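Folded chain entry —
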Amino acid sequence: MAFTSVAGLLEAARDKPLWQAVLEHDMAEEGIGREQSLERMGVLWRTMEESAASYDPARRSASGLTGGAAALVEGSGRAVAGPFVKRVIAAALKVGECNACMGRIVAAPTAGASGVLPAVLLPTRDELGLSGEEMVRALYVSAGFGQVIAVRASISGAEGGCQAEIGSASAMAAAALVHLHGGTPGQMAHACAMALKNLLGLVCDPVAGLVEVPCVKRNVAGAMNALACAEMALAGVESAIPCDEVIDAMRAVGGALPAALRETGAGGLAATPTGLRIAEGLRAPGGEKEG
């Protein structure tokens, strides 16, 4: 049985590290041994690394809407929020662009939100000098919280809007960051809750129905949100609303969103004059490409 509540996840971690509780749950659910579970998660981590490391600034998506943004950030002489945050932004763009250009990514929890976790984990690994084993443990933490969100609410933009994709990824990343910085399971839960609260109601409005605009740049927002919420949780800031109740609220909000704002490409930015013009140009013979 999957974890159905954050309260249950925290209970399972009362006498062991939270990542280990998730690992043991994976072993029982999948009927596999410890080494096999670790190897599977290791493959995911190595794929995340590769999705950023293989970035080609000259590559463009088939639509022409995506490509080169990460290179612009890395090549800029500015670092408004400091070099670490700049690396986070660049990493989120790299993986988001990799997905749009049909590269190999880890859907964590979805392809459209695949840049959030790598964006915070890769620079943190470099900053703290962490091993691959330590990063795999962080992925177990993120998976535990992600599983609860998937069970209690949704990780699908078509069901719950972008709060279910970028919001969930941001919450998973925030919990993983707290873990990597030595936080407690309770602080991980507070970081997860705050990250979800901050993106509650975020709509899914892909221009031309493609996972590019505004999806790629929303990965950056999700990563920034994760950083802020992990920072708050580690400082002792708590969510006034328990994490499970926040997840339940996300489900209710997602159900209340009109269909036009749930991945149909019929509302929000997709319905702006420019959004409609881009969609029409891509449908035309030869597919007009607008950058």
